[in-house]
Task: inverse folding
């Protein structure tokens, strides 16, 4: 087929929407098919001389992770994804530390220089990167300082009117 990674992402999103609308019988059939493909992937990984080479492709990486076959741990993949964001995070004077993976969640600690909280778009980018790196995880738990409360006085409001 020769799909690029963007087309794969779009297809996965469409597929997830379709799966949500299936009746229970159809859902069981899809689950059985997924399990069969998972077994086939397991055999491919065992037969491959360098399984880490398979993980270099975004689609294959996603499938390996979803079937618990990825040669790297979720922690290693999330760390690499966070390292790739260093330039972006640096521009926002924000740092992120992986504090652990617990079951289906990755825990991250966010710190910022010069302000109490990281902007929401920065936190969203961190969350997307972590979940893309380890799609078998279902959520990202971010420990971050609460945004500072802003006090606007009546004099400030009146001066703008």
Result:
């Amino acid at each position: 087929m020769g799909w690029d990674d963007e087309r794969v992402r779009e297809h996965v999103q469409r597929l997830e929407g379709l799966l949500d609308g299936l009746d229970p019988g159809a859902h069981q059939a899809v689950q059985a098919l997924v399990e069969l493909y998972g077994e086939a992937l397991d055999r491919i990984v065992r037969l491959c001389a360098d399984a880490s080479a398979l993980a270099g492709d975004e689609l294959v990486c996603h499938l390996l992770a979803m079937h618990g076959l990825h040669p790297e741990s979720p922690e290693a993949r999330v760390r690499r994804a966070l390292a790739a964001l260093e330039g972006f995070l640096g521009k926002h004077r924000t740092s992120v530390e992986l504090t652990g993976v617990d079951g289906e969640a990755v825990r991250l600690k966010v710190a910022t220089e010069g302000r109490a909280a990281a902007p929401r778009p920065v936190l969203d980018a961190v969350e997307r990167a972590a979940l893309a790196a380890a799609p078998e995880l279902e959520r990202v738990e971010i420990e971050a300082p609460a945004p500072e409360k802003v006090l606007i006085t009546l004099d400030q409001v009146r001066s703008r009117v």
